[in-house]
Amino acid sequence: MKAAVITFPGSNCDRDLAVALTQAGADVARVWHKDTALPQGVDLVAVPGGFSFGDYLRCGAIAAHSPIAPAIRDHAARGGFVLGICNGFQVLTELGLLPGALMRNSELKFICREVGLTVTSASSPYTRGYAPGEHIRLPVAHHDGNYQIDPEGLAALKDQDRIAFAYAPAINGSVLDIAGVLSENRRVLGMMPHPERAAEPAHGGTDGARLFASVVQELATA
Predict the structure, then answer these.
(1) What is the pLDDT of residues 80-95, one digit of tens each?
(2) Residue 51 belongs to a domain with what CATH number?
(3) How many folded domains does the chain comprise?
């Protein structure tokens, strides 16, 4: 199973994400934002956290117009897997690969701490390693993690079991406390919490490791 981790100017979790995927058994390639193609044979594209292009305009907006962006869209359109974490989630909404938008946190403060999450859907390649309704803990580090979506879009997410994670308790004003959502084909996941920062005992917790193990195993046996 081969993964590509994208790096933009301002990315600061790309190495951590590459390590977490490698430890889960993936063959990881690093891709610079000015590249125009993904490495041959890539199964999963991973877009890391950070502050791509300084979060100017809107978080993720400039990254969504970078030279590598069309290749990411094409990969998703072919049914490829895409994972976006924190700023990566923001990039995926700007690319149009996931619905909704990430707004400024409700109390207008940067939140950087470990939080509780409920696994809302365990029916995806990313979340099958968890039990439905399981309570886990992952770190967050964001100023614009307040997930918002129109009523029709929210109804679709609920009806199609596409809410992957929810904050428990609420932290930033997200509608229904949403912390992560899936695409219609369940192959694209965007989430604000950082599983790569809770992937080995030295991090103080390993709840994030199961996400990487789950998707790598899914693709390795596909």
Answers:
(1) 999 999 999 999 999 9
(2) 3.40.50.880
(3) 1
